[in-house]
Amino acid sequence: MKTLHSPTSNSAVLRLADSQALSYAGRGAAMTALIWALYASTGSAWWLSGAMLAIFGAATVVSPFTGHVGDRHDRRVVIMISALLAAAGFGASALLVWRGDAVATIVLMVAAGCTQGALTAAVQGAVPNLVADDELARANSVAGAFKSAGYMLGPGIGGALLAVTAAPGVFAVSAAMMVVSALLMVGIRAPLDRKSTRLNSSHITI
Predict the structure, then answer these.
(1) Cα separation values, 179 from 27, 79, 118, 143, 184, Å
(2) Which of 38, 83, 146, 204 counts the most CB atoms within 10 A of its CB?
(3) Please, what is the angle between helix 102-113 and helix 7-42, to 10°?
(4) What is the CA radius of gyration of the chain?
(5) Angle, CA 124 vertex, CA 120 and CA 129 arms, to 5°
(6) Is the dihedral of CA 13, 19, 23, 29 positive or negative?
Protein backbone atom coordinates (compact mmCIF):
# COMPACT_ATOMS: atom_id res chain seq x y z
CA MET A 1 0.00 0.00 0.00
CA LYS A 2 1.32 3.49 -0.79
CA THR A 3 2.29 5.74 2.06
CA LEU A 4 1.34 9.30 2.75
CA HIS A 5 4.79 10.38 1.57
CA SER A 6 4.08 9.25 -2.02
CA PRO A 7 2.59 12.03 -4.18
CA THR A 8 -0.42 9.92 -5.18
CA SER A 9 -1.30 8.94 -1.63
CA ASN A 10 -0.70 12.42 -0.29
CA SER A 11 -3.00 13.89 -2.95
CA ALA A 12 -5.71 11.34 -2.17
CA VAL A 13 -5.65 12.09 1.56
CA LEU A 14 -5.79 15.83 0.90
CA ARG A 15 -8.69 15.42 -1.51
CA LEU A 16 -10.56 13.35 1.05
CA ALA A 17 -9.84 15.90 3.77
CA ASP A 18 -10.85 18.79 1.50
CA SER A 19 -14.10 17.01 0.65
CA GLN A 20 -14.99 16.58 4.31
CA ALA A 21 -13.97 20.15 5.16
CA LEU A 22 -16.17 21.57 2.39
CA SER A 23 -19.03 19.38 3.56
CA TYR A 24 -18.84 20.72 7.10
CA ALA A 25 -18.34 24.30 5.92
CA GLY A 26 -21.30 24.09 3.56
CA ARG A 27 -23.54 22.71 6.29
CA GLY A 28 -22.39 25.35 8.76
CA ALA A 29 -23.08 28.14 6.29
CA ALA A 30 -26.53 26.71 5.54
CA MET A 31 -27.34 26.48 9.25
CA THR A 32 -26.35 30.13 9.67
CA ALA A 33 -28.64 31.09 6.80
CA LEU A 34 -31.47 29.07 8.33
CA ILE A 35 -31.08 30.74 11.72
CA TRP A 36 -31.07 34.17 10.08
CA ALA A 37 -34.07 33.43 7.89
CA LEU A 38 -36.14 31.90 10.69
CA TYR A 39 -35.55 34.75 13.08
CA ALA A 40 -36.17 37.34 10.38
CA SER A 41 -39.49 35.74 9.43
CA THR A 42 -40.79 34.68 12.87
CA GLY A 43 -38.90 36.81 15.41
CA SER A 44 -39.24 33.85 17.75
CA ALA A 45 -36.49 32.10 19.68
CA TRP A 46 -38.88 29.16 20.05
CA TRP A 47 -38.82 28.60 16.30
CA LEU A 48 -35.03 28.59 16.35
CA SER A 49 -34.88 26.19 19.28
CA GLY A 50 -37.38 23.84 17.72
CA ALA A 51 -35.58 23.85 14.38
CA MET A 52 -32.17 23.15 15.93
CA LEU A 53 -33.63 20.39 18.09
CA ALA A 54 -35.27 18.77 15.08
CA ILE A 55 -32.16 18.99 12.88
CA PHE A 56 -29.57 17.82 15.40
CA GLY A 57 -31.94 15.41 17.11
CA ALA A 58 -32.83 13.63 13.89
CA ALA A 59 -29.17 13.43 12.83
CA THR A 60 -28.31 11.89 16.20
CA VAL A 61 -31.11 9.34 16.08
CA VAL A 62 -30.24 8.09 12.59
CA SER A 63 -26.45 8.25 13.02
CA PRO A 64 -26.05 4.54 13.95
CA PHE A 65 -27.83 3.57 10.72
CA THR A 66 -26.21 6.15 8.43
CA GLY A 67 -22.84 5.39 9.98
CA HIS A 68 -23.31 1.73 9.13
CA VAL A 69 -24.07 2.67 5.52
CA GLY A 70 -20.95 4.81 5.35
CA ASP A 71 -18.70 2.10 6.74
CA ARG A 72 -20.07 -0.96 4.93
CA HIS A 73 -20.69 0.21 1.38
CA ASP A 74 -18.59 1.74 -1.37
CA ARG A 75 -17.21 4.73 0.51
CA ARG A 76 -16.55 6.86 -2.55
CA VAL A 77 -20.15 6.46 -3.67
CA VAL A 78 -21.49 7.07 -0.15
CA ILE A 79 -19.51 10.31 0.19
CA MET A 80 -20.62 11.57 -3.20
CA ILE A 81 -24.28 10.67 -2.76
CA SER A 82 -24.40 12.14 0.76
CA ALA A 83 -22.89 15.41 -0.43
CA LEU A 84 -25.15 15.62 -3.47
CA LEU A 85 -28.28 14.89 -1.45
CA ALA A 86 -27.34 17.68 0.94
CA ALA A 87 -26.65 19.95 -2.05
CA ALA A 88 -30.13 19.24 -3.40
CA GLY A 89 -31.63 19.99 0.01
CA PHE A 90 -29.78 23.28 0.33
CA GLY A 91 -30.68 24.28 -3.21
CA ALA A 92 -34.35 23.58 -2.58
CA SER A 93 -34.11 25.43 0.75
CA ALA A 94 -32.96 28.54 -1.12
CA LEU A 95 -36.23 28.53 -3.05
CA LEU A 96 -38.34 27.77 0.02
CA VAL A 97 -36.73 30.54 2.07
CA TRP A 98 -37.32 32.96 -0.78
CA ARG A 99 -41.01 31.93 -0.74
CA GLY A 100 -41.14 32.27 3.05
CA ASP A 101 -42.02 28.62 3.74
CA ALA A 102 -40.31 28.11 7.11
CA VAL A 103 -41.74 24.69 7.94
CA ALA A 104 -40.78 23.10 4.62
CA THR A 105 -37.29 24.62 4.92
CA ILE A 106 -36.82 23.04 8.34
CA VAL A 107 -37.99 19.67 7.05
CA LEU A 108 -35.49 19.81 4.19
CA MET A 109 -32.69 20.82 6.56
CA VAL A 110 -33.55 17.89 8.80
CA ALA A 111 -33.25 15.55 5.83
CA ALA A 112 -29.98 17.15 4.69
CA GLY A 113 -28.56 16.88 8.19
CA CYS A 114 -29.26 13.16 8.32
CA THR A 115 -26.81 12.54 5.46
CA GLN A 116 -23.80 13.80 7.40
CA GLY A 117 -23.40 10.63 9.47
CA ALA A 118 -22.90 8.46 6.39
CA LEU A 119 -20.39 10.88 4.89
CA THR A 120 -18.37 11.17 8.09
CA ALA A 121 -18.26 7.40 8.62
CA ALA A 122 -17.24 6.84 4.99
CA VAL A 123 -14.38 9.35 5.28
CA GLN A 124 -13.15 7.79 8.51
CA GLY A 125 -13.26 4.33 6.98
CA ALA A 126 -11.54 5.47 3.80
CA VAL A 127 -8.42 6.94 5.41
CA PRO A 128 -6.82 3.58 6.36
CA ASN A 129 -7.16 2.44 2.74
CA LEU A 130 -4.95 5.28 1.51
CA VAL A 131 -1.89 4.99 3.74
CA ALA A 132 0.38 2.44 5.37
CA ASP A 133 0.12 1.60 9.06
CA ASP A 134 3.00 3.84 10.06
CA GLU A 135 1.39 6.84 8.37
CA LEU A 136 -2.17 6.32 9.61
CA ALA A 137 -1.86 8.63 12.62
CA ARG A 138 -0.57 11.44 10.43
CA ALA A 139 -3.30 10.92 7.85
CA ASN A 140 -5.95 10.94 10.58
CA SER A 141 -4.49 14.19 11.92
CA VAL A 142 -4.74 15.80 8.49
CA ALA A 143 -8.34 14.65 8.04
CA GLY A 144 -9.24 15.74 11.57
CA ALA A 145 -7.67 19.17 11.13
CA PHE A 146 -9.53 19.80 7.89
CA LYS A 147 -12.78 18.61 9.45
CA SER A 148 -12.32 21.01 12.38
CA ALA A 149 -11.48 23.85 10.00
CA GLY A 150 -14.64 23.26 7.99
CA TYR A 151 -16.74 23.03 11.13
CA MET A 152 -15.25 26.28 12.43
CA LEU A 153 -15.30 28.26 9.19
CA GLY A 154 -18.78 27.29 8.01
CA PRO A 155 -20.80 29.64 10.23
CA GLY A 156 -18.30 32.42 9.54
CA ILE A 157 -18.68 31.93 5.80
CA GLY A 158 -22.45 31.99 6.19
CA GLY A 159 -22.29 35.19 8.24
CA ALA A 160 -19.97 36.89 5.78
CA LEU A 161 -22.24 35.97 2.89
CA LEU A 162 -25.27 37.32 4.73
CA ALA A 163 -23.51 40.68 4.83
CA VAL A 164 -23.58 40.83 1.03
CA THR A 165 -26.54 38.68 0.03
CA ALA A 166 -29.79 37.29 1.39
CA ALA A 167 -30.35 33.86 2.96
CA PRO A 168 -31.32 32.20 -0.36
CA GLY A 169 -27.93 33.20 -1.76
CA VAL A 170 -26.17 31.59 1.20
CA PHE A 171 -28.12 28.38 0.67
CA ALA A 172 -27.13 28.43 -3.00
CA VAL A 173 -23.44 28.83 -2.12
CA SER A 174 -23.76 26.02 0.43
CA ALA A 175 -25.24 23.77 -2.24
CA ALA A 176 -22.34 24.60 -4.56
CA MET A 177 -19.85 23.74 -1.83
CA MET A 178 -21.48 20.34 -1.39
CA VAL A 179 -21.27 19.70 -5.13
CA VAL A 180 -17.55 20.50 -5.09
CA SER A 181 -17.19 18.21 -2.06
CA ALA A 182 -18.66 15.37 -4.11
CA LEU A 183 -16.59 16.14 -7.21
CA LEU A 184 -13.34 16.02 -5.24
CA MET A 185 -13.90 12.30 -4.76
CA VAL A 186 -13.73 11.69 -8.50
CA GLY A 187 -9.98 12.32 -8.44
CA ILE A 188 -9.28 9.59 -5.86
CA ARG A 189 -8.41 6.43 -7.76
CA ALA A 190 -7.36 4.23 -4.85
CA PRO A 191 -9.97 1.69 -3.66
CA LEU A 192 -11.73 2.92 -0.53
CA ASP A 193 -14.01 0.00 0.23
CA ARG A 194 -11.56 -2.58 1.59
CA LYS A 195 -12.41 -3.67 5.10
CA SER A 196 -9.81 -2.57 7.62
CA THR A 197 -9.30 -3.63 11.22
CA ARG A 198 -6.71 -0.95 11.88
CA LEU A 199 -7.64 1.65 14.49
CA ASN A 200 -8.72 4.90 12.95
CA SER A 201 -8.30 7.48 15.70
CA SER A 202 -10.82 9.85 14.10
CA HIS A 203 -13.56 7.44 15.19
CA ILE A 204 -12.85 8.51 18.78
CA THR A 205 -14.91 11.55 19.66
CA ILE A 206 -15.02 13.59 22.82
Answers:
(1) 12, 11, 16, 19, 9
(2) 83
(3) 160
(4) 17
(5) 140
(6) positive
